[in-house]
Structure formats: C-alpha cells, structure tokens
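=== RUN LOG ===
request id: a7f3
mode: sequence -> structure
chains: 1
length: 411
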Amino acid sequence: MNWVTLLIVAVVLHAAVSGLLKGASRSVRELYVLIFSGLSMLVSIYLAWQIADWLAPLVRDGLTRFDLPVPPVDAGTFERTWKLLLQAVRDFGLLRFGLLFFIIYLLIDRPIRRLALWAVRYLPFQREQEQSAGSDDEDDDDDEEDDEQDEDEETDGQQLKRPRRRSTRNFNFMRWLHSLAGGFVGLIIGGWRGLVIITVLFVTLVLFPTAPFVHYVQQSAAYQLGAGQIIAPFSGDFIENKVPVWTEQLEGQLQELFTQKYAWMDADIPADLASAAAVITERYETTDEQAEALYRWVGSRISYDWEKVRRYEEDGTWLEQTPEDTFRTRKGVCIDYARLYAVMARAVELEVRIVTGLGYDGRGGYGPHAWNEVRLADGQWVPLDATWHSSGKNWFNPPDFEETHVRREVL
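=== RESULT ===
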C-alpha cells in the first residue's frame, strides 16, 4: 500500500480509537478545540492579510523618505545585512507584504487562539457535557455504595437485587454508547487532521511540480480522494494558479535582491584600488582608452582560481572575496574579475556594471559566467570579459561577443 495512504489512515484510526477511550464528553471538547483553533487561525490570517495590505504602502513611503546610506567597506555583516533588508522591504512589494504578513500573524495569532479556547469553556453544550461527565462520576460512586448496600441486605431476598442488576446493565449500556459516540467524534477529528495533511501535500505539489516524490503522492488513493473531491473544488484556481505565480514573483524578487548585494558590498572604493586605477589610466585621455586599459590590466594581472572552482564543485564551499582580496591575492573566478574591474572603473569615474549569464565552455556547452559592460564616450554600453583575456583574443567589445555569451542579469 502507498505510504501516504497508510499515514493518513493511521492518523484517522488513531483519532477514532482515542475517541473511543476518551468517551463522548472529552471527544466533543477536543472537537470544539479543533474547530475553534481552526477558526481562530482563519481569523488571524484574514486580519494579518488586511493589516499587511494596509501597512505595506505606508512602510514603502516611510522608507523612501529615508536615505539608506551604503555601508562602509569595513562594516560588519550585521550592518550590511539589515540595511540590505531595509532596501529590499522598500523596493520589493511582494517581499514587503510577505514579511509584514508574517510578523503581524505571529503577533495576533496567539491572543486570538487563547480567546477562542477560552470561549470553548463557556459554550452551553460544552458545559452540559462537563456536567454530564461529573454526573457519570457520581453515578459510579452511587453504584459502589449501592453494591455495598446489596451485600448488607443479602438476607432481604433476591427480589431486592434484581432491580439493581437491571440498573447496572443500563449503566454499562450507556457507558458503551458514550464511548461509541466518542469514537464517532474521534473519527471526525481524524478526518480533519487527514485533510490537513492532504492540503499540505497538495500545496507542496503545486509549488514543486517536478519534485521526484510528486508521482508517488499522486498515486495515493487517500490523497486522490481528499485533493480531488474536497480541496481542488473548494479552492478553485486559487492554489493551482495564483500561488505558483506569487511564488515565482517572490523568487524573482529574492533573486534580484541577491544580485544587488554586490552593489552594496562594493560601493566603497578602497584607497589602494583607486590609486592603482589612477596610475593605470593616467596615460590615457579618453573614456574608451581608459576602459580598455583597465580591461587589459585586470585580465593580465589576475589568475584564474581553479582551486576555488574545485572546492565549490566538489564540496559546495563558496569562498566569497572582495575586490580588494582579488587585487591583493591576484586570484579569482569570473565574478571576482568582474567585481574588481567594476570597482577600479568607478574609481576613475567610468560608468560600469556587472553582467551574469552563460558563457561558452569550449566543449559545445554553456556554464554560469560573469563579465562587465562599460559605457563609452558616445553613450553606448559595450561588453568586455577580463576573465577570457588570457585566451589570447581581445574580449573588449569584439563583434562576436554575443555568440559566446548569453546575457541574463545585470548586477
């Protein structure tokens, strides 16, 4: 049998057996708690959604009024991180809304849940159940007392004991009926919990349609029943169509935020890099000549760090380094070449940007790559690849640049 089906069936049966053992009163109370907890969660989600939707433009406008200075080059990780986060909240609408929603939900969910659980205690039917449970305990005590009286009155005749046996049988039947009702309520609770599991699986499959476990989950009979007959009709196209779109948009904004980190990290130009850039370009008068001189210097002075590549490919360890590190060690990979060129170009007041995408690997394929674009005197942006300078070909604005480079993102 499918393990997803086994899990859902086990959850339902466990709740049903627990209901049999607890009886109707305690099971109904648990059902009340479950229902009111679910309702309180829905209320919290709705309120958090509305408040976040109202606050989002106010937060954006408030952050826009403040100038977020670029952290100095010697700033710590914490300072850079929180300033980058503030910039992301200001610039990315979906990320801003999601963060506000999460914070507000955490703040209001617990008080609302407590209020709901407090209300359960004062429900009329719940109070009757508690009184019924108390009366059952009293009946147990009365039965014990009556049994003692029966023993004392043994000489009074059998006709006095028969009504007591009939009362005991009635009591046992009521207790059995009480347990049966508890089992039925437990079955409802188990069904609800199973539906929650199916909902989580349904959303997961919508968000990750190519995951290796998708086909196995879809083969589950219990999943097919819950997802096909309840969740999909109830949610309409909200989960299947809108959630993936929001997720894709959020992923895009996070990726854009990630690409902007270098603009923050490299905003301040170290004095030694500025001095070197000035010396390299002092013999050239035009912007075009200065841009190409920096390209030749970076491409000829920096060596490709194959060990860094090996550690990343084999161990998954990425050694982040600053342009100053690359300048000092004379080693780096494509993104390090591009960042160093960008900082040195800005030091002599050239307009420059870092581009990421795919580069031809010489074996018929393409791999992740980074290079630069610089603005010349005529206002045209031209590409250059300092990393490939060592190949012997001039990669400063060659006519066939786009044949070997696929442009994706501008950092």
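=== NOTES ===
Strands lie at 303-304, 331-332, 352-360, 366-375, 381-384, 405-410.
Residues 3-65 form the longest helix (63 residues).
=== END ===
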